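In this supplementary section we document a worked example of the pipeline. Step one takes a protein sequence of length 359 as its only input; no multiple sequence alignment statistics are reported here. Step two produces a three-dimensional model, which step three serialises into structure tokens for compact storage. The input and output of this example are shown verbatim.
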Amino acid sequence: MKTRAVTLAPAKINLYLRLADQRPDGYHNLDTVMQTIALADWIALEYRPDGDIPATYRLILEEDGCRAAMSLALPDLHPDQVPAAAAAICDPRRGTVPRALSVWLRTVRQQSGRPPRGGGTFLITLEKRIPSEAGLGGASTDAAALLRLLQALFPEAALDDPDLLSLAATIGADVPFCLTGGLARCCGIGDLIQSLPPLPTLSVDLTKPRLGISTARAFSHYRAAPPSWEEERSGPNADDREAFLRALADLSHIRYRGTEQTAEQTACLSRLRATGGNDFENLLAIDAPWMADWLAWLRSLPSVSYTGLSGSGSTVFTLRPDTEPALDAAAWFHEHRPDEQPQLFTTRLLDRLPAIRLD
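The serialised model returned by step three reads:
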């Protein structure tokens, strides 16, 4: 019987994002295309039949014969920031990982009448590499990865896919996509997922400024926007969304022809530039008016790439052919916003979720 499972929890980017009305449950309907990328957190789940918890772990759950604890590594944070960040991640009410564990255990008990293997201790180890408040789905992908580990480590208690996706949606709007991965159009609150054919090999440059924007804050700006903002949306309208999806399909077709044709890739990326966008982009001016200059500079470069804001920000991504050089984002920030000290990543697209290793 396996007692430990390990996987990577990859980030996502939003290739476009259009906001819609607010629902009675407080969520907003949206229309977006999400893509999994290789930047990832690392997560492990260990099961012990006894109740021992090592001193390096923090208790996050204790109920119905089950105890759970987390150990965190936050190597990219300043030491002064670690205690508050760790407390938020481990908080049973706010942290997506504790909530994912709690709701999965509760659902298993409801379906089978008992916790998996009669209870015991669940030890979760998480190493964070995805920046927070970045629009990259870091909290959502950690929750989704834990659900995948639970399903793999306890096959006798595993939930059916529809039940698992419904459960995931109660944790966060991006969690269902993070359970699915690859490239997909997501509607509703993100829980209506239409998988799309994978794209050819492209590099992804990410720039995450020091500025962080929480999802809650971004949506509060959206709800407070005056009626005139409707005319200033940066997300694509219905016609542009369909044109964007056609450009994605043509880009995917290049891959299936078995050759990497840079000229055709560039033409498709140019069409994405003409039709894409993100409704949160103009709302960024409330917290960071300078980001309009940053995006304008990126979009003034030769059209061999597609640039956009991911999620509610503040990360900006650029898709480019592998043959093109990485952006010199550091030079722009050094000249125009030296106080921001951005995190810079170059990564790649992922067609599927990383595998799970069982020990």
